[in-house]
Amino acid sequence: MALRETNETRAGARVPSDSERRLAQLAAVVETSGEALISVSLTRKILTWNPAAERLFGYTEAEAVGQDIGLIVPVANYTPTRITQGVLGEGRVIRVRTQRLRKDGTRVEVSVTASPMRGAGGEIIGISSVFRDRTLAVLAAGRQKSLMRELAHRGNNLLAVIQSIARHSLAGPDCAANARDGFISRVASLARIHQTLNAEGFEGAKLSEMVRLELGEFGPRARYCGPDVLLWSAEAQTFGLMLNELAANARRHGALSDPHGVIDARWSVEGEKEDARFRFEWTETGGRPVAAPTRRGFGLTMMIDVVGQSFGTGPRIEFRPGGLSYSLDVALGRIGRRLESNPVRARIRSPRILAFHDAWRRVNGLLPSFEELDVEIRGQSGHFTVATIDPFGEPANRRFDAMSRRLADARGVEASAGDRIARETPGADEAMFRRCARGREPLYELSTIDLGGGARRTFERLFVPCAADGVKVTHVVAMSIQDEEA
To answer: Looking at 160-233, which runs of residues are DSSP E strands?
Structure first.
C-alpha cells in the first residue's frame, strides 16, 4: 500500500502543512526584522505593524493597527499619492525618500519601498511597505555639504591671503633681494597654520603647537611657554602670520642674527570667564642693536595694522638697543578660549596656589629647573617643602631647604620646625612626592581635619616636579596653605 502525506502522525499529533510552515517563517522574519514593515489595506487601514515599526515611529502595534496610514504621514506630503498611483494603479514597486511623523510629533527621514500585496487570484489587495531610517545618512550628507562650503570659503580666503602676501612681498625697492625668501617663508607659515587648524577640525588652532612649529627649528635659542589656548580659526591665521614675521625679523635683523642672541616668547591668561585677558610677550636679547624701521613693509603692516584690526587692539612695539620687544593684551574671548587640559588647575581653590601652579610651567616642553622655579615663585605666599629625588625616583629627603628659607625670608614668614618634614617620616606624604616625581605632572591635595568641638581646618597642597636637565626629575616642590591663609 502506498504512503501518502497526511497532517496526522502515528501518535496522533498534528504536523503543520507546507503553507503553514511558510507562513510561520514569514511571520518570524517580519517579527525579527530590523526594518519597519507595515501593510495597508485598499481603504488605507493599517493591517500589520512589526516591532521595528514601533521603535521607528513610537506607536505600539495595538495603537497603530486599524488606524488610517495618515497617522504617520505629514500634512500636505505628496508621496502617498505617488505610492498609491504606482503600486495600486500600475502594480509597480515604488521607492521614494521622504519624511514621516513619529508619535511625539517629530519628523523622521525615511526611505520607503512599497510593493503590491496580491490575493489568491492575483488581484491587488493592499500595499506592503518597508521603511528604513535615514536620519544618520541625512545628517552625514548635511555635514558633508557644510564641510564643502567651509572648504570652499577657506580656499577662497587662503587664495586672497596669498595674493595679498605676494602683492606686498614683491613690492618695494629691495624686491629682488628679499622677495623670494619672504614670499616662501610666508606661504610656508600659512601651511603650518592650516596644519594646526586641520588637527582641531578647523574649530581653531592650539597656540602652543603653532609656536612650536614656528620656533622649534631655533632650538634652545628660542624659549616659549604658556597655558593651553585655542585660537579661533581667523585669529589663528593672523597670529601665525604675525609670529612668522617676528621670527623672520629676528633672523634677519634681530636676536637670531647674532650667535649670542635669544628669543623669549611667553603668553598667559589672567582672570576668569568674560574677564579673562590674553597677554603675549616677545622679547629679544643678546642680538645686534635694533632701530625703528624707516619705512613700513608687509611685516610691519602685518604686526601692527592687521593684528589691530583682527584683535580689536593694537600691539606695543619697542625697538630697544638690546633687542625688539612686542606685546599684546586682548580680551581672551575675542581671539579664542582656554583649554583646561590639566584637571589639577580646575580643582584648585586658593588664588595663591593657583598662582604657584601658573608660575610652574614647561618651557619648550621641558620641566623647569629647581633654580628657575626659585626665581618664578618669590612673589608667592605659602609654606614650601622641597624633596630631592634620587636616581630611582624616590624622595631621598624632604626639607624646608635654603630655597624655601629664602622665600620665607622674602615674605617675612618664619621657617619653623612645623614646616619641616624629616626624612624618616613615612606615609602618605612620601607617596605624594613619589607620584609627582614619577608622573612628571603637578599633583593636588585637599584635605579637611576635624579638630573636635565642631572646629575644622582645611589644607590645600600642590606638588610640582622640577628637572635640572628639563627631563629627569631632581626635585619636587610642595606648597601648602591652611584655610585661614587662603
So the answer is: 204-206, 222-225, 229-232
CA distance 397 to 425: 10
The CATH topology of domain 153-338 is: Heat Shock Protein 90 (3.30.565)
Q: What is the CATH number of domain 343-482?
A: 3.30.450
pTM score: 0.49
What residue segments make up the domains of the chain, in order of their start? 18-133, 153-338, 343-482
Write the CA distances from 135 to 97, 108, 355, integer angstroms: 11, 7, 49
Evaluate whether 153-338 and 343-482 have a shared fold. Answer: no
CA 52 to chain centre: 37
Q: In this structure, what C-alpha cell is assigned to residue 150?
A: 567651509
Can you spell out the DSSP letters for 378-447?
A: TT--SEEEEEEEPTTS-EEEEE--HHHHHHHHHHT----GGG---TT--SHHHHHHHHHHHHTS-EEEEE
Task: Tell the CATH topology of 18-133.
Answer: Beta-Lactamase (3.30.450)
> 16 by DSSP, 3-state: which?
coil
Place of cell 606615609: 427
pLDDT tens, 266-300? 998 888 778 889 999 999 988 877 777 777 777 78
Q: Tens digits of per-residue pLDDT, 121-149? A: 888 888 889 999 988 888 777 777 766 66
